[in-house]
Amino acid sequence: MNIIFLLGAVQAFFFGVLLLDKGKNRLSQKLLLLFFSIIGLVLIEHYFFQRKVIFEYPHLMGITYTFPIILGPILFFYTKSLVNEHGLISFRSFLLHAMPFLLVTTFLFYDFYFLSPHEKLIYYEKETQGQTSFFFFIAEFLINFSIPFYSIVSLILLKKHLRQIKKSYSNTENIDLNWLKIVLICMVFVSFVSVLMGLLSDFFNFISFESGDNLMYTALTIIIYFLGYYGIKQKPILSTENPIFQIETSPSLKPKYANSSLKDGEKEKLIQRLTNSMDNEKPYLNESLTLKELADKLETTPNNLSQIINEKFSKNFYEFINEYRINEVKRLLSDPKYAHYSMIGIAFDCGFNSKSTFNSVFKQITGKTPSEFKKSAFDLSD
To answer: Residue 72 and residue 315: Cα distance in Å, rounded?
Structure first.
């Protein structure tokens, strides 16, 4: 078991070196580097603890005790930096979220870190025997619930991000951050399991407290590999060049398109140009089609086109384009010339770039899976 924690620490620092080697000065990479560095230090201390090295060198004891408190905010700001790459993340905002970590760490400097090695061992012995001060109840609460709290907040942010990108992208593959969603869900699950195991050890003596710690640190080691692989290869998603992603700085009670310059006559003309283009030129066959590209093609602005799609068709851009793609798939399925094509081959020809996305969208629009629809279509033809 000990070797797992050591390998996890080495891997965390290795991913950190890779981030430095990439040389891109993006905020998301800086935050990921900080996350890996802290995780690496936490795992090294736990490795030393398991090997009893801590008790031979008590000055190493508790160095990373408060670090899990800051991991939650780092994870949240990392998520925020990915969905809003050039956005409203300030040092002051980060410092505010880091305040609990700074306060607890400051107290430990006063109460523990400057003790002699012998005094530290006595201090540790009292804590393990349940002679815990009120401060440590607060510290333990922050340590146990910082990561799940900020992970849940980050999941909410990702949900908003998915809604946002569907306003401008017809395919969300590689920009929906599903891999990060999996990481965050795992962090929440493992954190609560670890808390549960801690309660079982502290109040019911059902298991040892080391079992809960080992579970948490083993999960962190696994998450390092997952987060490292996807986090390092993740490219920037949003750009300040796309105005649809700018975040409002103050709430507004105005209707969504209250400031639109489109007149009724202009709306009808744009609707006509849009439907003619979709029916005759079939721009939706382009798997990477974006709102801006289609707006340029129609000689209008992304905001005007988005307004038309929202108001006239009651859909966002993603839904609008993919409904055309599904209708094209259905048309080709009934065409004898495509009888030898596979379902996924037809889907790719119609603008989809992912089997999972195609299956999901097809079921959402038709109420059937592609195979169910194909079977029912053949049954009707017989």
So the answer is: 35
